[in-house]
Automatic annotation (TrEMBL):
<protein>
    <submittedName>
        <fullName>Phage tail protein</fullName>
    </submittedName>
</protein>
<feature type="domain" description="Tail sheath protein C-terminal">
    <location>
        <begin position="2"/>
        <end position="93"/>
    </location>
</feature>
<dbReference type="InterPro" id="IPR020287">
    <property type="entry name" value="Tail_sheath_C"/>
</dbReference>
<comment type="similarity">
    <text>Belongs to the myoviridae tail sheath protein family.</text>
</comment>
<dbReference type="Pfam" id="PF17482">
    <property type="entry name" value="Phage_sheath_1C"/>
</dbReference>
<dbReference type="InterPro" id="IPR052042">
    <property type="entry name" value="Tail_sheath_structural"/>
</dbReference>
Length: 105
């Protein structure tokens, strides 16, 4: 559940940050700005300890000449969520060799 919440926050934040790019001319500069913005956000989340990392890239399969001409840009991104610790097992061992080592020194 916390992983889903993390994904929701990331998705909402990225979508909101992309609003200024809508209706701008679709060219390499805009694509690079979008990628840079998403990748900077992922680095920030990693530095805060919220995720293990993440990155964004252009989807070469979907960014066809036809789609780009229609003004459709496809950017994929991934991230590595941090799961909460749900089970911690502590194990105790008796080490009798330590007594022997202490006496033989």
């Amino acid at each position: 559940e916390s992983v889903r919440r993390t994904a929701d926050v990331i998705e909402d934040s990225i979508q909101e940050a992309m609003l200024p790019y809508v209706d701008r001319p679709l060219d390499r500069d805009v694509a690079d700005d979008i990628l840079g913005s998403i990748n900077a956000y992922m680095r920030q989340l990693k530095n805060l300890g919220a995720i293990h990392g993440g990155s964004a890239w252009l989807n070469d399969e979907l960014n066809t000449a036809e789609n780009l001409a229609a003004g459709w840009l496809y950017i994929d991104y991934d991230f590595g969520p941090k799961s909460p610790l749900e089970r911690l097992t502590l194990r105790t061992m008796i080490n009798n060799k330590l007594a022997q080592e202490e006496l033989t020194v």
